[in-house]
Write a structure and sequence with these properties.
196 residues; alpha/beta; single chain; seven-stranded mixed sheet; 5 helices; globular; two-stranded parallel sheet
Length: 196
């Protein structure tokens, strides 16, 4: 199983570390900037790093030859359909909500803002529409009374995302395919960035 990892920041670097511990081959790491935490972690691991010209889009040429799966870990860049076509199994990403609830950049913040008693994470298939691809795996947790978005992310959702990514990748390694359950659009909500 050969991966191209697209991501940034803490979660991207944590995903890289976890995948390498799993013995998964990382063909290339795609980042928004040379000084990003994931870029520095990938360079330290001796991996090939591709810096995006446009941090909002991953073009086909960014995907390493022979990629079996594209994994997005804290990536705000849209992986184009041409890029997905260069990967045998397409691509998956982690979203910190129980999709289709809270699609968007501020899912954890909206979980807190809406007073949701339960939060969760989803591994979903990358698709044309952001956060709208089929679900490969999900897990959930309770939200503590008075918990902030950052506290919820650090306590439960980030570790959950790493565990879910590994679980889905292990399954893909064994079966040669990814689970896929379509999202039910009637339950979709948006989680755009909001000002305080």
């Amino acid at each position: 199983m050969k991966l191209t990892l697209v991501g940034s920041r803490y979660f991207g670097a944590a995903a890289l570390e976890r995948l390498l511990k799993e013995g998964i081959e990382i063909a290339r790491v795609i980042v928004p900037a040379t000084d990003d935490r994931l870029a520095m972690a990938a360079k330290a691991a001796g991996l090939e790093v591709f810096v995006l010209d446009d941090s909002s889009i991953v073009p086909a040429e960014a995907i390493a030859d022979g990629t079996d799966l594209i994994v997005a870990a804290h990536s705000h860049a849209r992986v184009t359909s041409d890029a997905l076509a260069r990967s045998r199994l397409g691509g998956i990403g982690f979203h910190p909500s129980l999709l289709p609830r809270h699609r968007g950049i501020a899912a954890v913040e909206w979980t807190i803002r809406e007073g949701d008693p339960i939060a969760g994470g989803s591994i979903y298939h990358l698709a044309e529409r952001m956060d709208a691809g089929a679900i490969a795996a999900q897990d959930w947790c309770f939200v503590r009374q008075g918990e902030t978005a950052r506290e919820l992310w650090e306590r439960s959702l980030a570790p959950m995302g790493l565990d879910l990514l590994v679980r889905v990748i292990r399954e893909a390694r064994i079966s040669g395919k990814l689970p896929a359950t379509p999202q039910d659009e009637q339950f979709a909500t948006r989680a755009p960035m909001h000002r305080k």
